Amino acid sequence: MKNAIETNNLTKVYGNFTAVNSLNLKIPNNSIFGMLGPNGAGKTTTIKMLTCLIQPTSGKAVVGGYDVEKNPDEVRNLLGMVPQQVSLYKDLTVMENSQMCADYYGIPSDERDARIEDLMELVDIKYAKNKRVGQLSGGQKQKASLVASLVHRPDILFLDEPTIGLDPTTKRTLWDLIRDLNDEGHTIILCSHDMHEVDMLCDNVGIINTGNLVAYDTPQGLKDSLLEANKKKMTEALGKISDETKISTSTKEDIGNLGLRKMSILLKNQNEEIIEAIKTSDFVKTVEIAHNGRINLRIDSYDDMAVQNVLKDINSFGGVIKSIYTEEPSLEDVFIKATAEVDENARV
Ligand SMILES: Nc1ncnc2c1ncn2[C@@H]1O[C@H](COP(=O)(O)OP(=O)(O)OP(=O)(O)O)[C@@H](O)[C@H]1O
């Protein structure tokens, strides 16, 4: 079995509203998959179908080799789930909640408590094992939830916003744990709005928008595609300005501390008039002339057209561009671009 999860035109319709639309997804075994999408995109609905909590309207999903509709029990046995809202019993202790989960999955009683204690140590919650869940802080509840969901050593683990509200240290502990679990062979499905987290942890990323899968690749692949598209647009905008203009990308540090959307330009024929034209361009928020003559700009817009319009302004004042640096796109840029075109009719 190559893929831990495979869906074929998986669809969920509520009334006349399509929450998930013909989803075709392949999540390789032993990988970390990041599921991204704006609020209401259909992520939770997808996860609910994959974890047999709701039935698909049409299409198919195979999880761990089992069809979610034909073999839901087998699927459930393979899964662990840490939901957005911790779903443990508030009046039971951390230990009792985990014991209940272990019993549900039929873990032998002579193994059960040792397994739970090992996991508690791993996520650092053993000190609170006899505390009732209702008395725990948000982060402690999240850890308790992880212990309960890992006790049966699931092949596939679903994590829905697992680090939301956690302090930076606890967040890092959890990231390390996710990597460790993956090294041990678990496939992990991570739903998160934290782009840094997804970029850092995930092997592959899928972006869902209004029920449709609009992008799927490695994080680097997604960023590279956007970079290529941006370069193409810049080349088009440069047009006849100069065939020799070098377009490159650079990290934030190389360009300098300029703020949000940055670009840096070197002109062959820099003069006051051109600089003035750049400064008064509608799209340019700050202009800084570096000691080496580079013009560092901050363009306060995520609109692709901003870059093109600045280049056109320079062109109209006779500026000949020698080289352009733009900031490398981040996963956040990819997300914003991929989800920009929202079909308002497809929302409720
Ligand atoms: N039981 C339901 N009945 C009708 N519509 C529903 C139901 N559950 C979800 N929806 C709708 O389906 C769409 C997708 O919801 P879903 O919870 O899957 O989004 P999501 O991507 O998980 O969002 P978020 O990031 O906010 O958690 C939303 O428009 C939501 O209103």
TrEMBL record:
Q: Which SMART domains match?
A: AAA (SM00382)
The record, for InterPro entries, names: AAA+_ATPase, ABC_transporter-like_ATP-bd, ABC_transporter-like_CS, ABC_transporter_ATP-binding, DrrA, DrrA1/2-like_C, P-loop_NTPase
Keyword Lipoprotein part of the UniProt annotation: no
Report keywords, A-Z.
ATP-binding, Nucleotide-binding, Transport
In which family does this protein belong, per the annotation? Belongs to the ABC transporter superfamily. Drug exporter-1 (DrugE1) (TC 3.A.1.105) family.
Matching PANTHER family: ABC TRANSPORTER ATP-BINDING PROTEIN (PTHR42711), ABC TRANSPORTER ATP-BINDING PROTEIN NATA (PTHR42711:SF5)
What is the protein name stated in its UniProt record?
Answer: ABC-2 type transport system ATP-binding protein
Organism in which the protein naturally occurs: Methanobrevibacter gottschalkii DSM 11977
